[in-house]
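Below is one such protein, fold included:
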Amino acid sequence: MTRFSLIPLLVLAAGSLSAQSHDTSYAAMQARGKMAMGVDQNASKHVFDDLADGGRIELQADSADSTAIGAIRAHLETVASAFAAGDFSTPAFVHSGAVPGTDVLAAKRSAITYRFAPLPRGGEIRITSRDLEALHAIHQFLAYQRREHRATGHDMH
């Protein structure tokens, strides 16, 4: 085998290691998410929607498990209060680092409203603002969440 015929094999191996690393990172994020919210991330569904006046974070259990639903609701109520106070430590913990948009969201907290509402199998946080910089940060935050959680949602861009 020549030196040049080894190149495609090395490229394939590197790609495989990259995919494994990404899946390992995703699994670690899911495990931290379970610690943060008290519910298995793989037994629930996230939705992150961009809206013209802000956005929406939805989290619902895959089943009618009342314990999981209660944990989701308690988690989302806590998160809504923390975000309103400019505290984004939970997403930083779950994602193991700074989350795009949170610096602006913290600085602009007085121009943003976070409202929790229950849903049949969990709940949602509705995020609203009239401040253009805050709106951009909300959409940046939600786009990152959609990507990282491999979640659905509507992107305004």
Residues 7-149 form one domain. The first strand starts at residue 44 and ends at 51. Strands lie at 44-51, 54-61, 112-119, 122-129. The longest helix spans residues 3-37.
